[in-house]
């Protein structure tokens, strides 16, 4: 049917309302799906490792891997893992005193909650490999 809006003749159909409703439903669903540009969160479970976290973060940035860390001096390990989960960050790079002594780091897949110990020298290659595996699945 036809009606006048601001002096112009406009055809009004019920399809317009249906499309608007579909878009609003789709927008709500899209807000629930969270993905992150950041691919790796550098975390530590012990105090005094901020400089080490920053070194690893810098190493990942130089390799063009999107990474971040929480900038608190001594964040709790659980809060760091929760941040990664809430933000949709797929990997955590975990360091501690024992890892530093052994020259290794742990890569944690946040989706499957599995950890893999790797040599610090192989960090970039292993991170890229794991990210490629996650993107292909």
- The Rg value, from CA coordinates, equals 23 Å
Determine the N-to-C terminus distance: 50 Å
Structure class:
alpha/beta
Low-confidence stretches: none
Number of strands: 7
Beta-strand portion reads 15-25%
Structure description:
- With 137 residues, the protein is an alpha/beta fold.
- Helices cover 46% and strands 24% of the residues.
- The chain has five helices and seven strands; from the N terminus they run ββαβαβαβαββα.
- It has helices at 14-32, 50-62, 77-87, 97-102, 123-136; strands at 2-5, 8-11, 40-44, 67-69, 91-95, 104-109, 114-119.
- It has a five-stranded mixed β-sheet with strand order 4-3-5-6-7, with helices on both faces.
- Helix 2 links the parallel strand 3 and strand 4 (67-69).
- The radius of gyration is 23 Å and the shape is elongated.
- 20% of the residues are buried.
Features:
single chain; 137 residues; alpha/beta; five-stranded mixed sheet; two-stranded antiparallel ribbon; 5 helices; 7 strands; 46% helix; 24% strand; elongated
List the SSEs and their pairings:
Layout: E1 2-5, E2 8-11, H1 14-32, E3 40-44, H2 50-62, E4 67-69, H3 77-87, E5 91-95, H4 97-102, E6 104-109, E7 114-119, H5 123-136
Parallel strand pairs: 3-4, 3-5
Antiparallel strand pairs: 1-2, 5-6, 6-7
């Amino acid at each position: 049917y036809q009606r006048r809006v601001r002096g112009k003749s406009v055809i009004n159909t019920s399809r317009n309302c249906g499309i608007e409703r579909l878009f609003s439903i789709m927008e709500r669903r899209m807000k629930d799906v969270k993905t992150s540009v950041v691919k790796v969160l550098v975390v530590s479970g012990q105090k005094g490792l901020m400089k080490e976290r920053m070194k690893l973060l810098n190493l990942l940035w130089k390799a063009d891997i999107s990474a971040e860390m929480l900038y608190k001096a001594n964040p709790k390990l659980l809060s760091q893992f929760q941040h990664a989960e809430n933000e949709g960050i797929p990997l955590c790079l975990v360091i501690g005193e024992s890892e530093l002594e052994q020259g290794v780091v742990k890569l944690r897949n946040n989706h499957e909650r599995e950890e893999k110990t790797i040599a610090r020298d192989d960090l970039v290659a292993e991170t890229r490999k794991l990210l490629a595996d996650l993107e292909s699945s």
